[in-house]
From TrEMBL:
Keyword presence, Transport: no
Domain LD-carboxypeptidase C-terminal: 205-335
Alphabetized SUPFAM superfamilies for the sequence: Class I glutamine amidotransferase-like, LD-carboxypeptidase A C-terminal domain-like
Lineage: Bacteria, Bacillati, Actinomycetota, Actinomycetes, Micromonosporales
Residue stretches in coiled coil: none
InterPro entries: Carboxypeptidase_A_C_sf (IPR027461), Class_I_gatase-like (IPR029062), LdcA_N (IPR027478), Peptidase_S66_N (IPR040449), Peptidase_S66C (IPR040921), S66_fam (IPR003507)
Keywords for the protein's UniProt record, in alphabetical order: Carboxypeptidase, Hydrolase, Protease
One term of GO molecular function: carboxypeptidase activity
Stretches that traverse the bilayer: none
Annotated protein name in UniProt: Muramoyltetrapeptide carboxypeptidase LdcA (Peptidoglycan recycling)
Segments forming domain LD-carboxypeptidase N-terminal: 16-131
Family of this protein: Belongs to the peptidase S66 family.
Length: 346
């Protein structure tokens, strides 16, 4: 844990890598991708450098790894942004050149399937950034969400402590990327109810580890997770995907982490707001509320069994819902249950 270090930050005007180590969706939805690139240039004054596999669906894992390694190796590139997630990045990370990554640490931004890369960098001692998708967040219909925009700007360019803000409104029903006209329409949003705190009235400070729960489970099966004792003291990040895993599976995955000895070592956990709607599963508002409640109960049950004294904060906006706050992965976080405040150091 103590060997983790923050990479140098970019400055406005710099070149940044834009890569698709998971799915090459920019090739299928160029209108969304180009909007994200436009905002990267106009809102953040960064010049995106695209790599060969960025727009290619089903590119060979070795080629995707070659692009990601090249992005770290390029001395003119000062940060690396993933375009989107996917489901097979676990086949890419074994082909990365770790010597190059260690010698050229850079801020890496991604979430969902990019948990593979964030965990890989963590094991190399490099702090990454959970969040920030060129398609999903920079390409958001209507406009950038102000909380996402501010958090991403602070994470890209800043190194200080930053207070996360509970979303006054949130959404999990995105526009249809198959319809270019949908980019002009703001997403459906719902009133926010703030964060939900459970556990002792204490203050916990530590470095983060975790990410998308389904991907973490794959990583455990592939033996790509550090020994439990080396992660003790971490603040655990948990978020679930658009596949809407049932509560019983969320519990079982966490139970498996508990049996591995991981949960007992986490003094606190930040739990992302549960995404509860997808085009193939259009849950009603009542069904969405029930789904989120069942997931919260599953997480609570697992921690009650393996880490009963842990501090839990639910509905933190860092997962598959909108807005998305950037969380340093392996970086410092302070969870203050007394003042109900979460601060991250970018």
């Amino acid at each position: 844990m103590s060997s983790l270090s923050y990479p140098p930050k970019p400055r406005p005007g710099d070149r940044v890598a834009v890569v698709s180590p998971s799915a090459g969706l920019p090739g299928l939805f160029p209108h969304v991708y180009e909007l994200g690139l436009h905002r990267l240039r106009e809102e953040y004054r960064l010049e995106p450098e695209e790599y060969p596999t960025t727009r290619i669906m089903g590119a060979d894992p070795r080629d995707r790894a070659r692009d990601l390694t090249a992005a770290f190796a390029d001395p003119t590139v000062t940060a690396v942004l993933a375009t989107v997630g996917g489901d097979d990045l676990i086949t890419v990370t074994p082909h990365l050149d770790d010597a190059v990554l260690r010698a050229n640490p850079k801020p890496y931004f991604g979430y969902s399937d990019n948990t593979n890369v964030l965990n890989h960098l963590h094991r190399l001692g490099i702090v990454g950034y959970h969040g920030g998708s060129v398609l999903v967040h920079l390409g958001r219909p209507g406009a950038l969400h102000p909380l996402t925009a501010d958090s991403l700007r602070a994470a890209l360019f800043g190194s200080d402590w930053y207070d996360l803000t509970p979303a006054a409104e949130w959404g999990d029903e995105p526009g249809d990327w198959n319809d270019p006209g949908s980019l002009a329409v703001e997403p459906v949003m719902f009133p926010g109810a703030g964060w939900h705190w459970q556990g002792p009235a204490t203050v916990v400070t530590g470095r983060t580890w975790g990410g998308n729960l389904e991907v973490l489970h794959w990583l455990l099966a592939a033996d790509r997770v550090a020994p439990a004792e080396s992660l003790h003291g971490s603040i655990f990040l948990i978020e679930t995907s658009e596949e809407l895993p049932p509560a019983v599976e969320v519990y079982r995955m966490l139970r498996n982490l508990g049996e591995r000895g991981l949960l007992a070592g986490f003094p606190a956990a930040l739990v992302g707001r549960a995404k509860a709607w997808e085009f193939s599963r259009r849950l009603t508002p009542q069904e969405k509320t029930a789904y989120a409640g069942e997931q919260r109960a599953a997480v609570t049950r697992a921690f009650a069994e393996y880490a009963p004294d842990a501090l839990l904060v639910f509905d933190v906006d860092f997962g598959h819902t909108d807005p998305q706050l950037i969380i340093p992965y392996g970086g410092e976080v302070r969870v203050d249950a007394v003042s109900r405040r979460i601060s991250v150091r970018y």
